[in-house]
Design a protein that fits this description.
The chain is an alpha+beta fold. A four-stranded antiparallel beta sheet has the order 1-2-3-4, covered by helices on one side.
Length: about 100
């Protein structure tokens, strides 16, 4: 952590980093042994696939990139908030636990 947190819209150079960030944040609750995930009957493999596919989705068009805001510590992606404009809902909000 260098303390220089910046927040801005996703850029093409950020492609490939959103999926891993979401997986790092949401991954612990997707483990089969997690009682909350089991109680909610969440299919772990499809959630993991969805989180990794978010990268392709949000970087598929300029319009969708404009719907995803990223927080960076220097060059490191540490947080994201992404809205799906097609269904008018917040799809993802994630911050690495150490932040």
């Amino acid at each position: 952590m260098d303390g220089q947190i910046t927040i801005g819209r996703a850029e093409l150079a950020d492609q490939g980093n959103l999926g891993p960030l979401l997986l790092a944040v949401y991954g612990p609750v997707m483990r089969p042994e997690n009682e909350a995930a089991a109680a909610a009957q969440l299919p772990v493999s499809s959630l993991e696939d969805e989180l990794m596919a978010a990268d392709d989705f949000y970087f598929s068009t300029i319009e969708l990139m404009d719907c995803c805001y990223l927080a960076k510590d220097g060059e490191k992606l540490v947080g994201a908030a992404c809205v799906n404009p097609y269904v008018n809902e917040l799809h993802y909000i994630a911050v690495l636990p150490e932040y």
